[in-house]
Amino acid sequence: MPFDDLRQWIAALDRAGELRRIQTEVDPILEIAEITDRVSKSKTGKPGGSALLFQNVKGHPGSRVLINQFGSEARMKLALGVNSFDEFADRIRVFMDLKSPQGFLDKLKMLPLLTEAGKFFPKTVSTGPCKEVIERDNFSLLDFPILQCWPQDAGRFITLPCVTTRDPNSGKRNLGMYRLQVFDARTTAAHWQKQKVAAEHARQRMRAAVEGKSAAVDIMARTGGGSVLAEGDRLSSKMEVAVVIGTDPAVTFSAIVPAPPDVEEYLIAGFLRAAPVELVKCETVDLEVPASSEIVLEGYVNLDELRTEGPFGDHTGFYSLEDLYPVFHVTCITHRKDPIYATTIVGKPPQEDAYMGKAVERVFLPLMRLTIPELIDINLPIEGVFHNLMIVSIRKSYPGQARKVMNAIWSLGQAMFTKCIIVVDEDVDVQDIADVTLKVLNHIDPERDIQFTLGPVDSLDHASRLANYGSKMGVDATRKWPTEGFTRPWPDEIVMDAKTKALVDGKWKALTKELGID
Question: Among all residues, which ones are annotated catalytic?
């Protein structure tokens, strides 16, 4: 069953016993983060703890703060409406496998799928709950219980925003999750890194503005100015932005999914919900946002305006250092009556983002297989903070294939940031770190099987030689073949024979009592 908004999702969490309502007064400066960090790492109770709804926030009477909503495997599955992440991946695979029909019967077979897919496209409606309160004047971001999570953070940060921008060429909307450092009542930083889609949208607009002004100056020089100069002056140097805080889980999750370039995130959200996302037009910018959102921030960035952002306690477990980022100017705020402020905390794993990342891993696998069909499975361990380590199993068919796979992964969107890739054979369970460790360290000759390459790295990588540029490592831990220059015998793995295992299986119930094994 799809969730129409954040409030339906909170009710579902409550029914499932996955929500705790906190009445004790808490401070949004550091205190909520410390409580949530303890809950997410608790060794007692269920992994990841509970989702938390703080209802007595210091300095913000009547406000409610939702955090850790996705902070367990159980809650992520509930959010996606599946019993396993692989079930979700299978649903995606069905639509990825659609091929051009070869005949009339093939076309008939495709009709149900195409009809179902047509239900996922977003639709625009005239109004929605996010318009219950519209503030064009006398508004302040500081009215919301925005958190400061860690002591050395540069201030308060909006950490779970769904940020919408528009491609100036195709008109396609992009939904991304970029943190926003609050500078004052009406401005924030917009932390979209150079490789992110919103940054590319800004670059496209900047190129168009520069080319347009150059053309206007050239025409003015040839015609003597007048109205042409005025027209050139009207060329926009701004990019409109809409930020949504507090959406149904499908929309929030779609903002972090590595979508194919031509697929809008709102379509992915519709697929997740099995129902279209209803959108409404913003009040002051030409963008659309989910009608059921809790809070909407409308505004713009000046393409030539940068300001220092950070430090910020990041998901790597270290502070990301200060750097220059665009300034987001808020022109209007709309929200529901008594809005719920949805947020998250990132830091040393495991945190809420770890469980979101594991779900993305399952989404990413069928997308990767489109270009790397030999892939069996992938694992991005939580402790590798997702961009530091990827373990990949493949069906090996020819010499050097592991290295081909490494380079293919480094060419795939956000996977280009992967610092270390380990490739193993298909019989290795990449989800079993103990098995991976045993096989990898037994299978490699370090000088022969480790390769290094240079390229773009994540902006959060504080160890790289330069910001956004450094080295990456690939490890070929597959069995080596004679055609790869390995002429020694390769030993068999120690495995008990099936007959003996079956004999012991028959005696095991009695043996466990004698052995004192529960």
Answer: 314
